Amino acid sequence: MQQWQEHLKQIIGEVLIDEAALHKRLDELAEQINHDYQDIQAERLVVVGILRGSVLFMSDLVRRLQMPVELDFMSASSYGGTESTGTVRITKDIGQDIRGKHVLLVEDIIDTGNTMSRLIPMLQKRNPASLKLCSLLNKPSRRLCEVNIDYQGFEIEDKFVVGYGLDYNGNYRHLPVVAVLKPECYA
Ligand code: PRP
Questions:
Q1: Residue 81 located in a structural domain
Q2: Is the CB–ligand 1 distance for residue 74 below 6 Å?
Q3: Is the whole-model pTM more than 0.70?
């Protein structure tokens, strides 16, 4: 345990968003979503998490939602190391027909916008009643494709971040904070 804490001290350059700030923003986002979807009580909101980065954010967000919710998942991958390859691969689709349903996509980060600019039109073609996007983080300085984010947690600078779902080569997703690694970690 102490070894892990020591390791974190060595690799984390800066904690960008701590647990208190995350939870406060989650409360605010959930309040907004609860308000916006208050009229769909008789139906279900289909919350679609984009694997794998969204998992921690999604699980904390849905626990705050006060309406019938169904969880589903999609998987899209475009990164190797710290750089987006630009080619978005859909590696898992949702397991249901969303025609006529209200759908909320949940992402950890919108960076170049490549992933969402591929996924959103694809899902729109299936004629959902509504399709909105909630992203914990937004890095607008990196945008290549325009993406409309309906619910945004935090706008951040162009720093490579890990934790709270975000990884570096598969590591550090489970950290309870959003952090910037020290530059030497990318060697
Ligand atoms: C990350 C992140 C988003 C996407 C955002 O996914 O989770 O889905 O990149 O980047 P973009 O706006 O430039 O497309 P990644 O492909 O790394 O998969 P992961 O969620 O499994 O980490």
A1: yes
A2: no
A3: yes
